[in-house]
Amino acid sequence: MSAYFVLKVVHIISAAVLVGTGFGIAFFKWIVDRTGNISAIRIVSEKVVLADWIFTLPAITVQAGTGVALAHVVGYPLTRGWLFGAICLFCLAGLCWAPVVLLQIRMRDLARAYETHGMPLGEKYLRYSRIWFWLGVPAFSSVIVIFWLMVTKP
Fold first, then answer.
1. Per-residue pLDDT at 22
2. Which of 45, 93, 139, 148 could connect to 108 by a Cys-Cys bridge, CB 3.0–4.6 Å?
3. What is the DSSP string of 2-16?
4. Distance CA 126, CA 135 (A)
5. Spatial separation of the C-alpha atoms in residues 9 and 139, rounded to whole Å
6. Is 92 exposed, middle or buried (0-12, 13-18, 19+ CB in 10 A)?
């Protein structure tokens, strides 16, 4: 089995984990926030933060490592064509993801405080939720375009 084949398989699996976990986290977080149920929001928020650390962060790391290794194995420069575009979009998604994780931690902590004090969702939580959502739009759009670039290699 060649190094290229192993790298490609790991790269594809980590892409599936990254996209699947990302969309799953976003879906459940977005849906639960709309319920206004503080207990449910707290529980889902705790699991969302955990899932990002267990699945998303390692997948991002593996994606970057295997992507660079694949380009090296086939002799394709990182600064050329579709690969450079994919790398730029990957960085854009990462620049959106980092504050998203911080917002998720803050929202988790706020949900814990609201639940402890029997309070409804406050404006601060709702503001964080809106920012979280809108940071997800360019992040997920970038990932979809990266998939298109990887498949079509224009």
1. 93
2. 45
3. -HHHHHHHHHHHHHH
4. 14
5. 23
6. middle
Sign of the dihedral defined by the CA atoms of residues 122, 127, 128, 133, in that order:
positive
What region does 105 belong to: left with phi over 0, alpha with psi -120 to 50, or beta?
A: alpha
Q: Write down the pLDDT at residue 1.
A: 83
Packing angle of the helix pair 57-74, 81-116 (nearest 10 deg): 170
CA dihedral (17, 23, 26, 31) positive or negative? negative
Measured CA angle at 107 (ends 116, 94), to 5 deg: 160
In this structure, what are the phi and psi dihedrals at residue 117, rounded to the nearest 5 degrees? -95, 5
- Render 4-73 in DSSP notation, one character per residue: HHHHHHHHHHHHHHHHHHHHHHHHHHHHHHTT--HHHHHHHHHHHHHHIIIIIHHHHHHHHHHHHHHHHH
Average pLDDT on 129-144 reads 96
Instruction: Name the average pLDDT for the chain.
Output: 96
Q: Is the pLDDT of residue 144 over 90?
A: yes
SS3 104: helix
117: DSSP letter: T
